[in-house]
Amino acid sequence: MADVLNVGVNLDAFSQAIHSIQALRSSVTRVFDCLKDGMKNKESQESRERAFVSEFQDNLHSVNRDLNELERLSNLVGKPSENHPLHNSGLLSLDPVHDKTPLYSQLLQAYKWSNKLQFHAGLASGLLNQQSLKRSANQMGVSAKRRPKAQPTTLVLPIQYIDDVISRIDRMFPEMTIHLSRPNGTSAMLLVTLGKVLKVIVVMRSLFIDRTIVKGYNENVYTDDGKHYYTPVTDHATTALLHYQLPQMPDVVVRSFMTWLRSYIKLFQAPCQRCGKFLQDGLPPTWRDFRTLEAFHDTCRQ
């Protein structure tokens, strides 16, 4: 402990100097208090002036005495030893040309920014972990016990695994029928029929949805000669594909998209949740909210 305190400073004189500074501050405060209060009430003008001058002189003598005591103790304190165990880092502050090579100040600034970056990165990581599964639609009737315990995470998934996922989704929704085919090898194409409302072609790349095309129930899904009445629904389906993104769990993405698509079973029966109308410019509410699945007109969802 003695080696730590042996830094070339008289600690007793240093402690006394601190008390002397406090006494000096008190005496200076009394001087200003005296000037603030002015002459106190006495019997005559002469006695008031005499009392004020006497008190002011005493306060000035106290300031002078405390200042002399502080100067005496400052000479006894000594100077800190320059032999600190800073090793090579102690030489950084001795740079004579600070304008040209301010290495020491730059290192301090970089250290501060590194601490700030680490702190904000930790906050961002906590917030992102809390929001990891909030981009999925409502899981209607899906129990956690029915989910597979281990899921492949690579882009190329086994065909049997993809067929099982599509089969489970098909059994989830009685109003929706899903026909799976592979016209070009391993890539799957789904023909989804939603009641008697519409049909959807879903082009998949492994278990990732690549594109969707929405057609009317009576339209030919394999040609492009339709009336394009369902073009807004196709655009909204494309937007939904961009919204439901969870690469670590592709089966959740497909199930969430199908849950959102199932909400169009009442395309011509559900009114707009904002204006309350069934038709606007001759069109039903074609937009479905990604979280609540509520119906809106395309102009009312703003």
Write a structural description.
It contains 7 helices and 6 strands, in the order H-H-H-H-H-E-E-E-E-H-H-E-E. The chain is an alpha+beta fold. Among the domains are: 76 residues; 120 residues. The strands form 2 sheets. It has a 4-stranded antiparallel β-sheet with strand order 1-2-3-4. A two-stranded antiparallel sheet has the order 5-6. Strand 5 and strand 6 form a beta hairpin. Helix 2 packs antiparallel against helix 3. The protein starts with a helix and ends in a 6-residue tail after the last strand. The N terminus is likely disordered. It is found in: Nucleus. Belongs to the Mediator complex subunit 27 family. One of its GO terms (molecular function) is transcription coactivator activity.
List the helices and strands and how they pair.
Elements lengths: L1 H4 L5 H27 L7 H33 L25 H28 L28 H14 L3 E9 L2 E8 L3 E8 L2 E9 L14 H13 L6 H13 L24 E2 L6 E2 L6
Antiparallel strand pairs: 1-2, 2-3, 3-4, 5-6
Helix pairs in contact: 2-3
